[in-house]
Automatic annotation (TrEMBL):
<dbReference type="GO" id="GO:0008081">
    <property type="term" value="F:phosphoric diester hydrolase activity"/>
</dbReference>
<dbReference type="Pfam" id="PF03009">
    <property type="entry name" value="GDPD"/>
</dbReference>
<feature type="domain" description="GP-PDE">
    <location>
        <begin position="9"/>
        <end position="243"/>
    </location>
</feature>
<protein>
    <submittedName>
        <fullName>Glycerophosphodiester phosphodiesterase</fullName>
    </submittedName>
</protein>
<dbReference type="InterPro" id="IPR030395">
    <property type="entry name" value="GP_PDE_dom"/>
</dbReference>
<dbReference type="InterPro" id="IPR017946">
    <property type="entry name" value="PLC-like_Pdiesterase_TIM-brl"/>
</dbReference>
<dbReference type="GO" id="GO:0006629">
    <property type="term" value="P:lipid metabolic process"/>
</dbReference>
Length: 243
C-alpha cells in the first residue's frame, strides 16, 4: 500500500479554505485555520524569498495579492512577512509559521513554484530543512521537472507528485517522463480528464487528485476519473445538488 494513499481520504482545500479572496484570502493562516476547523486537507504554494526562506505564496510577483509591484524573490523574508494580503490583517506566512499552525491536524499537499534550475539551486534543500521533524502527513509536488528531479536526488522522505495539465500526446509523454523519476502521485487539471496518462496511473495504483474543482460538474468528473479533488468556492461537506 502506497505511503501516499492518505491523499485520497479528504477533499483538499485549494490554497487553504478561503472564500475566493473576499474576506479570507488564499494561502493565509486564516485560510489554513478555516480548513483545519472544517477537517479538510490543505494545498498551498511555496515561493522562495531573496534570503532563501520558503514563503507560502502563489504568484511570482506581489501585485495581485499585495497590491504592490515587485518579485517575491527580490525581497527578504522579514520584509515579505510584513506585507498585507488583500488589505487584511493576514501577512505572507513562512512555511514554518504554517507548520506551527497546522501541527499535523490535517494533511498538507505543498506545491513548489519554481523558475529554472539555476535560480532554484538550493530551493528543495531549504524546504526539506523546514519540514525536518514535522509530525504530520505531507506530500510535495511541482509542475517543474527540475524541482521534481531535485527532490528525488535529495532523497525526499515525503511522497512526491507531479502537478500537471494538458491532453496533447506531447504533454502526456512529458508527464510520463516526469513520473519515471519515481514519483508517487499526480495532481491533474480536472478539465483535462479523462486521458490515457491518468488512466494508466490509476491502473498502476498511483493516486490521482484533481485541480481546481469549483462546481458540481467538476466534482462529478473528479470522482469518475480520479481519486480526490482539490477544491475552492464551495463546501464539499454539503451534498451535491440534485438535478
Amino acid at each position: 500500500m502506497s505511503t501516499v494513499d492518505w491523499i485520497k481520504d479528504l477533499p483538499v482545500a485549494h490554497r487553504g479554505y478561503h472564500d475566493m479572496n473576499k474576506s479570507v484570502w488564499e494561502n493565509t493562516l486564516s485560510a489554513f485555520k478555516r480548513a483545519i476547523d472544517a477537517g479538510f486537507a490543505i494545498e498551498c504554494d511555496i515561493q522562495l524569498s531573496a534570503d532563501s526562506v520558503p514563503m507560502v505564496f502563489h504568484d511570482h510577483d506581489l501585485q495581485r495579492l499585495c497590491g504592490i509591484a515587485g518579485e517575491v524573490r527580490e525581497r527578504m523574508a522579514n520584509e515579505l512577512g510584513m506585507l498585507s494580503i488583500g488589505g487584511t490583517a493576514d501577512r505572507i506566512p513562512t512555511l514554518r509559521k504554517m507548520l506551527d499552525l497546522v501541527k499535523g491536524q490535517v494533511p498538507l499537499v505543498i506545491e513548489l513554484k519554481g523558475i529554472d534550475a539555476e535560480q532554484d539551486d538550493g530551493y528543495v534543500e531549504a524546504v526539506l530543512e523546514v519540514l525536518e521533524g514535522y509530525d504530520g502527513k505531507v506530500a510535495l509536488m511541482s509542475f517543474d521537472f527540475h524541482l521534481l528531479r531535485a527532490l528525488k536526488a535529495a532523497d525526499c522522505p515525503y511522497p512526491v507528485g507531479l502537478t500537471a495539465e494538458g491532453v496533447r500526446q506531447e504533454d502526456l509523454a512529458n508527464h510520463g517522463e516526469a513520473m519515471a523519476l519515481g514519483l508517487d502521485f499526480t495532481s491533474y487539471c480536472v478539465a483535462h480528464l479523462p486521458n490515457s496518462f491518468v488512466e494508466k496511473l490509476r491502473h498502476d495504483g498511483k493516486p490521482v487528485i484533481t485541480w481546481t474543482v469549483r462546481d458540481e460538474m467538476m466534482r462529478a468528473q473528479t470522482y469518475k476519473y480520479a481519486d480526490q479533488m482539490t477544491f475552492e468556492g464551495f463546501d464539499p461537506r454539503q451534498a451535491p445538488a440534485v438535478a
